[in-house]
Amino acid sequence: METRNSLQLKEVRKSFRRKEILHGISCDLENGVYGLLGTNGAGKTTLMRCMTGYYQYKGDIILNESNVRKMGLRKIGYLPQKFVGYPELSVYQMLEYFCNIKKLSRREWKDQIDQSLTYTNLEDKRDAKIRTLSGGMVRRVGIAQAILGDPQVILLDEPTSGLDPEERNRFKNVIDNISDGRIVILSTHIVEDVEASCDKTIVMADGNFIYQGDTLELCRYAAGRIVEVDEEQVKQGIDGEIEKTYLKKGRKMHRVILREAVSNALESTVEDGYICLLKK
Known about the structure:
Oligomer: single chain
Number of helices: 8
Shape: globular
Order of helices and strands: EEEHEEEHHHEHEHEEEHEEH
Helix content: 25-40%
Largest sheet: 6 strands, mixed
Distance between the termini: 43 Å
Radius of gyration: 21 Å
Strand order of the largest sheet: 6-7-8-3-9-10
Number of strands: 13
Structural class: alpha/beta
């Protein structure tokens, strides 16, 4: 039977010197894959570091009725935005190192490492040195270390940043492998990754949550406001109806956002809705 996990954020605030970065964030999360979507500087990484207990903060973060301030690394797995590893260690040795950091008992190491290598499709790279791996494989090693110890929550900060399309497709399979019975939070500014992997989405802007709900429901924020026009119409602004920000699509045609809904609008996408939500 799948374990039900609950993660509660209650009025979480974080400041650096006199500047407040997180402005009293609250939400309730259960098992599933959540996209934490926002532009660079929205506060996503700061929030994740608070959730791991790395940063001190005001408010409370509660996992299964226990405050995360009192938890060890085993309960919450974390892939930081920049994960490189030790170049001369093998993949297996690298994961042994993290088993030690997480204070797993020695008798658990082999089973935990074998499981994490299977989930991340790295079984054939167990003896390869970190320095010989592609960027995508190194990110998968980062995910493998995050799931050591069977954490109830896994936080992935910009996990597909810099990856090619093939590695990004592999990443979706990895998410499918590790998500059962857990809360997985994927922080990114890439809408396609959220649309491909996350049933639920949280949109973050300027240290606040401005949307929490189904990923596909984001489309409704752009309903009736998306059309395609040619470059000349973009330059003219369609008599001033085009928003200042528009989505470029192809060389000659542009997918643009109108200020008001129109009858000949195209079907909106999650990306359209996300951009319209940020512009509200």
